[in-house]
Amino acid sequence: QVQLEESGGGLVQPGGSLRLSCTGSGSALYFFAMGWYRQCPGKGRELVASITGATINYSDSAKGRFNISRANARNTVDLQMNSLEPEDTAVYYCYANVGGENDWGKGTLVTVSS
Q1: Which helix (H) or strand (E) segment is 108 a member of?
Q2: CA atoms within 13 A on the CB side of 106
Q3: Cα Rg of the chain, angstroms
Q4: Beta carbons of 103 and 44 less than 8 angstroms apart
Q5: How many Å separate Cα 48 from the centre of its chain?
Q6: DSSP string computed for 59-83
Q7: In 1-114, which residue ranges form alpha helices assigned H by DSSP?
Q8: Are 29 and 47 a contacting pair, CB within 8 Å?
Q9: Tens-place pLDDT, residues 27-80
Q10: For a disulfide at 20, which of 8, 12, 15, 94, Cβ 3.0-4.6 Å?
Q11: Cα 53 from Cα 70, distance rounded (Å)
Q12: Residue 51 CA from chain centroid, whole number
């Protein structure tokens, strides 16, 4: 089955940066879409950024601070997060749509705190 392996989470001070990486495997089908969602404490899961071909979507909070990129040949998607705020503290989940089905990574914790 599809596997999404995440890395890059950790503890960072406000104003700092982190880079999340995700590598997909386990399917001969094209990873049609990839991206990142997050679940903040006490909140539901929400979109951070996604990329499908040349189409990129960002949440309002991510625009201007985060940058998503993808290496299709390796089914890899990265999220460069800059100017992090305490409100960005969340478990970040890699996302992929493969063959019309949504798949999720296990999540990586990002904590923004001084």
Answers
A1: strand 108-112
A2: 6
A3: 13
A4: no
A5: 7
A6: -TTTTTTEEEEEEGGGTEEEEEE-S
A7: none
A8: no
A9: 988 899 999 999 999 999 999 999 998 899 999 999 999 999 998 677 999 999
A10: 8
A11: 9
A12: 10
